[in-house]
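Hi Y.,

Following your request, here is the sequence exactly as I used it, all 394 residues.
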Amino acid sequence: MAEKQNGLKRGASSFSLVGKVAKFNKFTFQIDEKSKKSDWIYNSLNLGINCGEECGVIYGKAMGGYGKDRKNLVYVHGKDENGYDDFDNRFDIAWEDRDNKDILMTIGKNCFYKAGLKKDVNDNLVIEEFLSSYDFINYIKENLEEGMIVNVKGNLKYSFNNDDNVVVNKEIKAIYLSNKKPEEYDAKFTQTVLFDKDCLDVKKYDKDKGCLLIDGYVADYLKDYKGVDVKQTYPFKVNFEYKIDNSDNEKYLKLIRLLFKVKEGVTAITFVGRFIEGGTIVTATYDDLDDDIKQMVDMGIYELDEALDKCSVSSNRERRMMLIKPDIKMIINEDGTKTPKLQIDRKKYEESDLEFILPKATNKKQDTEMKVVDPKLDDEEAADLEKLLKELGD
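Below is the corresponding structure, written out as tokens. Let me know if you'd prefer a different format.
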């Protein structure tokens, strides 16, 4: 078990892939796969989307199933009196009731997987909703075709592989037909990134990529580590790139210092970014797992999808997460008007919140030679930052 609880909360972490469905292979759909040592039956999806020349083919995944000889539950949350998701009202329903229309009416919209792969007589998308990814994958298998233009949406989830490298999984929650043209294909994400005073090194600029290389932390739930329960929000250290022109050295230094330098504590910034990937990935199946790992799955120490993910093999696959610009959110004022606000929160956490001792291993932020001091942004500096970001553009 982890040594202490921290104050971290999971921030924004989502993606949208727009492009052409890549050619199917034997790993794209696995339907009603059966565990050889338990009653587990599952569907899995490993879907490639060609998101254009710059972004490449990006893969998203989904997996879900049930135990044939056990009581299966679907965990959901309800709605408030205004019909919005009430995340505090959590309950479960029987697997057999996952299509019960009366029950579905009481469940918050964020619980559902959504697919829009058909159109009605008026050329409008027909949206189907599913409580289980098992049913969601079945529907996609029956209706998706190679070469379709789609928009795939979902959540980013962070974990460790067998070599303790951080893995970013794109877990699909929705898929819709799209009318986008090839020049409009894209692979975007929105991610809250945490920065401490040691994250920025102004010299780490890659001229070939036109990016500042910067490490940040992403807070995400960690169920276990090497078979030992953690069950806490963990600060995963992630390598990012920030797209910026450094030909004007004065402007370059001013912008990145206003944006990334931290005086004390931990700064949280929600970015809009872009995936740039290439290469291929081979996804493991239950049969590919060695006997020890199979036994851990069958005993419930690992969920099957976690084990498969950790044992999947990737070739020389480029995986870049490029930060483009801070996100802007419209804030509703007391008088009902709206004000745009950069999603930058100075001193969101304490530095100690990024220190985390894992079972059988220690993972603390490491000291670097660079020690930076940054005054907290006053109104004038904040205005300078917004002006520079506007000049930078998309």
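The chain has two domains: 13-70+112-392, 71-110.

Thanks again,
Q.
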